[in-house]
Batch of 2 targets.
Target 1
Amino acid sequence: MKELKYDAVVIGAGAAGMAAALEIEAQGFSCAIIEREDHLGGILMQCIHNGFGLHEFKEELTGPEFAERFIECVVKSKISVHLNTTVIKLNSSSLCASAHKISCDSSLREIFCINPSGAIKITCHSVLLAMGCRERNRGNIRIPGSRPAGVYTAGLAQRLVNIEGYIPGKEVVIIGSGDIGLIMARRLSWVGCKVKAVVEIMPYPAGLTRNIVQCLNDFDIPLYLSSQTTNIFGNDRVEGIEVTPIKNGILEPEKSFRLDCDTVLLSVGLVPENELSKAAGVELNTVTNGPLVDSFLMTNMEGVFACGNVLHVHDLVDWVCEESRRAGRYAVQWLKGERPTLQINIKAGSHVRYVNPAKIDPEKENIIYLRSMIVKDDAVVELRIDDKIILSKKERYVQPSEMIHLKLIPKDFENIKINSNSILEISIN
């Protein structure tokens, strides 16, 4: 077995992994990226539409163009890149670290990988999880009916069209209004397919407003909200689906209707890719299915950090990069022996689905991400400690599909008595 050693290892070579690795390498620590695909860039390489980079680069780019900006930096750096390499196990070790700048109480991590050349054992002092996310499929949402050909996830259809050069069908219905599904509605329309409709079970869209406008409205594609797909018809190939409206949470079968089609795309949500994390003993958030992390974006395993869509699914890759750079900086601080002196827990209050990270350091600047459970105009986000409001922020419009960002600085905690038992509660009113 080939054996390698690094200060830090990043698992995943998408935008998150590259952004984190570049931060670590810039601080003089040895770093490696492990990627199971044969290329850097992750899912961005099949996202040929524009709309990326408006925050990160202040210009509009396609997915491959966005990825290429980071790939160029990685190639020019001293980062070791291992492509076609799959991590099969992540272990901790009781060995004491002795590398330069690294405190003696730091535990070592062992990563076992496999690639076409054989098995590899990598020993490192810090691990950054950046494996991204995967699509939920038909089994996750339990659509009844037969099992014909022609049912795809939206991401698979995107790969077929943009990378492989295949068109999955002629008449398409998209189940779920996630962003990938919306983008594929436009993409398939461009290549000559007839997109019959997008069917969404919730009373509001799951994707960004700009994608509703640009991908559905601009192409006159109907969006059926509060509607459930209750059957898929067809034996060898999809022939149609049954759609049943929902009123007050109850199906109205007497109003069911059929949409004829030969292809069904599922755009019903994304799930962090955390099989490896779970097997390693990383504690997961029951709401996001990503790791629970503290103010350092560190998991319950010392020296193991998480960032990007493996932590929680973002709406924009720009935010993925911002978060991942911070994870890289936190990993460097941890490698240098720095630790938070005080961390307090964060609690999701009324109308808040989840908050990340799970803890903050009141003595440092903190970036907090949260998602609303409601759709509302002129909302107010309130942060409280012991019923005392420390921050109140007005939001013109909130909805579950669009992430809310908050920044907290030490000044926000002035004149408030804080201890390890304090809880910061975030609510939307």
Target 2
Amino acid sequence: MPRPEKVRAIEDIKGYFSASPSAFLTEFRGLPVEAQQELRRNLREAGTRYRVLKMTLTKRALHDLGHHDLDEWLTGPIAVAFVEQDPVIAAKALVDFSQSHDGLVIKAGMLGGRAIGADQIKKLATLDSREVLLSKLAGTMKGPLSRGALLMGSFTRSAASMFSQLADRKEEQ
């Protein structure tokens, strides 16, 4: 029979995964405390919580949630970045930090309920943020609308000019 504190820890971990639309698994061997604090600060600014978790309890919680596809990456000391906002910003923060600190290894992640590998997380980090992508889309959609409005405006300007010229000719006669 499992001990109550372990059952509670598994429930907490399940809650973290359920509340986050995406999560990234990392290994943090040999990171000094100052570097860990810097990483947590960077991730907090990116709307992400970083938790050090026990591997066996995490594996059990993920199995309870029906995620068996992360088992191969659940080895060694595990820390999970639970993304609460934009996963692109969190992926960028992790990738940038891992490039300057060898002690942080990005292992895998979950995005939209699917397991993704470290290479996909690195590709995700190269994308623009959600806000930038939305503004690019809005700009792309605005172009044809603006041209259409200018075209419609030119009809009324041309018609007004034509009527003005006709009125001038009538006055001359």
